[in-house]
Every structure is written in structure tokens, then in C-alpha cells.
Amino acid sequence: MHPEIFHLGPFVLRSYGLALAIAFLVGIWLATREARARGWDTDQVLNLGLVVLAAGVAGSRLLYVLGHVGEFQGRWLHVFALWEGGLTLWGGFLLGVPAGIWFCSRHKMPTWEAADILAGPTALGAAIGRFGCFLNGCCYGTPTKLPWGMRFPEGSLPYQQFGNQPLHPSQLYNVLAGLVTFVVVTAVGPKLKAPGQRWWLMLGHYALLRAAVDTTRYYEPSAYILHIGGTGIAESELVGVLLAVWSAVLFFLMGATANAQMVPSASEATTTPPAG
To answer: What does pTM read for this prediction?
Structure first.
């Protein structure tokens, strides 16, 4: 855990903010590289990335603040202190996706092909951002007896909650989930024929892994919306599972539609025999 990189007078470089900046720069580099390979206008893709990033960060912060209103009572200006941490991933999708669709419609860009270009960078960006969470000490896990359980320093949020107990490094699990998703999308993506399939593969794969990781993460009691036996199911877990199912349905529907369009109709397949 290392929330601050260095101080320079009043300026403080925070690891969480640095991770977000690196995630964006790496993601844009990957997206523009693929756009160039497709013969797209890289400036348009850059602008699309900026719009999606701005809307995604706003949505992530908004959903976090709405779920932690008490944390900001009497200190409302801290709502804008993104470098302190406090972003909810699904909130980013909630605003980022509509913003991307709007931009593509406005600039006459093929929406699903644009989404495919952003699929890999989104997964890798999520991984880099979660490493920022680890350095910041937020989004921590629950106690574990596994040998890789991690202890956080006195004064940190994890220490305030659990003391010196070893905890699941849930942030690093999420880093791994993003990296694995990026590798899967990079390997499988070029083999997919239907526009949009790469995006839904990314979202479904990551959402499922994220739901699994969230079973090891600490959430406030109010975040649990279902209880099955003695096990609580957090809102983010349920959202992850539902998103994975929804993504799988659209992935296969898009593939089936593309295959149907490639198969010639009976009338097209029948040729008139030459006159003898």
C-alpha cells in the first residue's frame, strides 16, 4: 500500500490518480493502434475515448457517492476529489456506454465496431485502475487464512476495519481478472465475425470474474441485497452475474444473425440450368 508517490510543495502525486492516468493513456494507445489498422480516423477514436472516459468517471463517482452519502456529509467538495479513490465500476458503464453510443451516432461511426475497438483497452484499463486501488488501500478484501493473505498498515482503511488480520487482496484479484479478460479478448477477438461480439465477450467475461472476486471483498452491510442461508449477496455481485448473462445472450444472438446473413437464400443458391 502506497497512496502517495511524492510531495512537491503543495502538490501531491497520488498513486490512485496516477493509475487512472496510465490506464487511460495505455487504453487510448491500444485503441488508436487498432483504429489505424482498420483504416479509421484515429482522431475520432481519440475523441470517442475522451468522451467515454469523462462520462465513465462521472458515472463511477456518482454511483459511489450515492451509495456513501454519509461519508461526504459536511465535506461535499471531496465529492470531486477523485484522487482519494471511490469509483464504482458499474456506474462507469452506466454513463460511459450511452455516451459512446451518442458520440458514434453523432459522428456516423459504426457503433459496434467502435465498441470492439474499445473492448481490449477497457479490460486492460480496469486492471491498471484496480492496481491503483491496491496502492490506495481501498476496495479491500475480507479476512482469510490463505497463505497470500495481506496485512495493511496501521491507519489504513483495511486496518481500521479488521486490524492486523490477513485479508484477501481483492484489488489484485481484480487486476488479474482484467488481465485475463484482456488476453482472452486479444486472442479470440480476431476470430469473431460479427461486429459487437468482441465487446460483449469482454463485458461478459469480466463481469463474471468480477462477481466471483466480489465474494472476497468487504462491503458495508447495506450493500447486501439478498441473503441465502448465511451468505449475503452484494449488489455488485448480482449486477455482475446479470451482466454476464445478458452479454452471453447478445454475443450469441449477434453471431447467429451474422451467420444467417452469410448463408445465401434458397433462391440465390439455385441456378438456372443452361439451355441445351
So the answer is: 0.87
